[in-house]
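Consortium newsletter contribution from the modelling node. Members have asked for a concrete example of what our holo predictions look like. Here is one, prepared for the adenosine-5'-triphosphate complex that several groups have been discussing at recent meetings.
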Amino acid sequence: MIPAMQVRGLSKRFVLHQQQGAVLDVLSDIAFDVMAGECLVLHGQSGAGKSTLLRTLYGNYLPADGSIRVLHDGGIVEMVGAQPRQTLALRRNTLGYVSQFLRVIPRVACLDVVMEPALLRGVPAEFARAKAAALLRRLAIPQRLWGLSPSTFSGGEQQRVNIARSFIAPWPLLLLDEPTASLDDINRDVVLELVAEAKAGGSALIAISHDEKTRSAIGDRYLDLTAQEALHD
Ligand SMILES: Nc1ncnc2c1ncn2[C@@H]1O[C@H](COP(=O)(O)OP(=O)(O)OP(=O)(O)O)[C@@H](O)[C@H]1O
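And here is the predicted structure:
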């Protein structure tokens, strides 16, 4: 079976030009595979580089070295050095990212925010709307808020809208950055169910969570970035 994502020799260095050119080698020689239907949880103390790795895997940071291969449309795409157009195509259909925070677009109603990824995949509007409504209901967003812009929503409500938006269309590969932070136990359990459903549907996941219950509920394998660092000292 071909991995959904295969990473080899991945290194990321920050050069702080405003601070005497200080160099931070945050990731060095990271290697792993993630298969469809499994979740790799990133471990390591604060500052170990978990968020940096997730952002690098999403193509937000250019690594100093290494390769990130993604199974996309039946072929393998090398993300390191890919054209922006290729990265965008990957992000449209293959590679999703659930951040802790919703990127709020003023004046766009909550229901439309949630529906958008399904519409972009060509799902007819009525199905997308019904699915968005079902997700918002599951995530306990009151119906009176559905027609409003999430810009005024509470932090936890925005996070749940973001989760609904992220799970409305299936992703072959999904990066999760603290998907349950700032949620109460009931909503956290709904997110854990959505993650389990995504895995059962064949998604490969890579996740960061500081919550032990979340980690043990979703994690099939763990990558310890502290150990990686120690290994290469
Ligand atoms: N854009 C950046 N520019 C410079 N340094 C950065 C940047 N982003 C992260 N770093 C540095 O990289 C290191 C790793 O940060 P990162 O946020 O990836 O850690 P983390 O493991 O996710 O931590 P936490 O668990 O606290 O969220 C830190 O020392 C941080 O200062």
